[in-house]
Amino acid sequence: MFSKMKNIDTAFRHIRGFTMLVILCCAAITSYSIYKSFSSVALMQDKVYILANGKALEAFASDRKDNVPVEARDHVRTFHQFFFSLDPDDKVIKANVTKALYLADNSVKRIYDDLKENGYYSGIISGNISQTVIVDSVCIDINEYPYRFKCYARQNIIRTTSILNRNLITEGTLRNVSRSDNNPHGFLIERFNTLENKDLGTVNRKP
Q1: Helix 90-101 and helix 106-117: axis angle, to 10°?
Q2: CATH number for the segment(s) 64-204
């Protein structure tokens, strides 16, 4: 009888040990599953999917400080494209300048007002002149805020009989502002100034 009781007690201890082992394994598996689930959710939150031409393109979210130089250069480049690209059409000029003014402060607005008052845009229209700009490089100093920039570009002023090539060097600072449809990079150009804008040469157009 005592032998039977001893066997039952031993079997009970084995069952209890096995049960505890199973419980510990289940707890470990559950904890690992929860950890992986939270990791997957965190990873998914860093991904952005953009729908373009019917296709889902994957993008990754990151801190803005990682992209400041890239976004700042593109902001300056976009501003120059809008402000200095002109065609002999009043609506085109107004549309481009309006887009440029969303990206800059009153220092640019004063330049625009002076050019308009001096008949610069009227001369573009009456002379059937087109003006294009090619930005060669943009240097951004992010070591000090507001960020200073210097832009090196070339202008082509296309007239009926000739094309005038000019260099263009500008500078200014960039201040952080809220992003919007009109200002997707969230920068505002301040203290804009043209350092150099001189003729490089003229090329005659073929009749």
Answers
A1: 160
A2: 3.10.450.230
